[in-house]
């Protein structure tokens, strides 16, 4: 991930550890918040969308990823249908 954003191919271990800590903290925080706003004890996609709704970049990215996911599901379903009809 760091290399993709312009860091060295072999970054410092300390940098990797710091980024890992930040990502884990962010994911944990978002998960806890999502568990509080939605159905208690469950995290749903809509809860995460709700949490990032005011951050335009994150909101756009999550919408893109959800759209892509739906397109992949449809493509897999069509491919499976073709596979079974062709055999």
Give a concise summary.
It is found in: Nucleus. With 87 residues, this protein is an all-alpha fold.
Overall residue-averaged pLDDT value: 90
Report the structural category. mainly alpha
Overall geometric form? extended
What is the radius of gyration? 18 Å
Q: Give the proportion of residues in helices.
A: over 70%
Number of helical elements: 3
Series of H and E elements: HHH
Relative strand content: under 5%
Cα distance, first to last residue?
Answer: 41 Å
> Count of DSSP E strands?
0
Largest β-sheet summary? none
Q: Runs with pLDDT <50, length 5+? A: none
Q: Could you please describe the fold and organization of this structure?
A:
It comes from Artemia franciscana (Brine shrimp). This protein has 87 residues and is mainly alpha-helical. Helices cover 72% and strands 0% of the residues.
């Amino acid at each position: 991930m760091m290399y993709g954003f312009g860091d060295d191919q072999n970054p410092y271990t300390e940098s990797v550890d710091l980024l890992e800590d930040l990502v884990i903290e962010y994911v944990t925080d978002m998960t806890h918040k999502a568990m509080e706003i939605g159905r208690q004890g469950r995290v749903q996609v809509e809860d995460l969308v709700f949490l990032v709704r005011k951050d335009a970049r994150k909101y756009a990215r999550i919408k893109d990823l959800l759209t892509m996911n739906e397109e992949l599901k449809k493509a897999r379903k069509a491919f499976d249908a073709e596979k079974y009809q062709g055999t």
